[in-house]
Specification:
alpha/beta; six-stranded parallel beta sheet; two-stranded antiparallel ribbon; 6 helices; 8 strands; 40% helix
Length: 177
Amino acid sequence: MTKVVIINGSNTRDSRVTGVQEKVELFFKAQRVAVHTNYVHELPTADLIKANFASEAIIAENKLVEEADIVVIITPIYKASYTGILKTYLDLLPQKALEGKMILPIAVGGSIGHLLALEYALKPVLAVLGATDIAHSVYIIDKQIIRLEDGGFAVEEEAIKRLDVELNKLQHIATVN
């Protein structure tokens, strides 16, 4: 069975990033794929900041990444880059943790001007972690994610279509292998 890990690099569950992450989860669950979401901001802060490789929480999350076939990394873009909290977690992954996995980078940013942050900031780090099968990045402008009165999120159809294209490619490759 295909296993997916979503690494949510936001600093809160109340973020538009979570709205996109929920769409990704629903996609894979509809395919009957095992999905786990790592909310990086919920990992022990001291372990992240002090790079505690012996942390039980970090070891457990890294084990799930090791067992995954697909890793989706989703982050807001702040100051033309992915979040620092995401970087602290990526630094705790073993050197070749992403080797042999299909990777989908997704970002949510304030303007199209930060589109290349995934290509020039995040993808090189993923490559250092062994990623060679990196899907086309999906960049969503935060205005395309509407916060609903019930606390949920609605993502505009155009963004969903772009996201679905990449998710379908990943799912197809995973089922063929």
